[in-house]
Amino acid sequence: MIRPRFLPAAEAELLREVGYYSDARTGAGIRFQAAVAAAVELASRQPQGGVPGPHGTRSWRVKGFPFSVVGRAGTDTLLVVAIAHHRRKPGYWAARVA
User: Hey, which bits of 1-66 come out as E strands?
Assistant: First the structure.
């Protein structure tokens, strides 16, 4: 298993969406955070899994939410590039790894 490291922008996205879901419904923010953590753990265990993307990235779906964890695996680290919504500005995060 490789260890995950979040880009500051990806961490900010996670915190913003946790806040959004927390405001929307009791417990939803915690569920979203747990679902993202599960996707990051899966990506760390299976860095060659997920859906291939640009610039050597891959994406793993966040179960139960319209988001994916976008990351790029190195030898011992998974760089989490974005917590990307499926319908908002597709590929906006690509400049972070270009």
Answer: 3-6, 51-52, 58-62
CATH of residue 70's domain is: 3.30.2310.20
Other Cβ atoms within 10 Å of 77 Cβ, number: 15
How many whole angstroms separate alpha carbon 73 and alpha carbon 97? 12
Q: With 0-12 CB in 10 A as exposed, 13-18 as middle and 19+ as buried, what is 14?
A: buried
Q: Give the domain extent around 20.
A: 3-96
Query: Whole-model pTM?
Result: 0.94
To the nearest 5 percent, what fractions of the chain are helix, strand and coil? 45, 30, 30
Query: Based on the structure, what is the number of domains in the chain?
Result: 1
Low-confidence ranges of the chain (pLDDT < 70): none
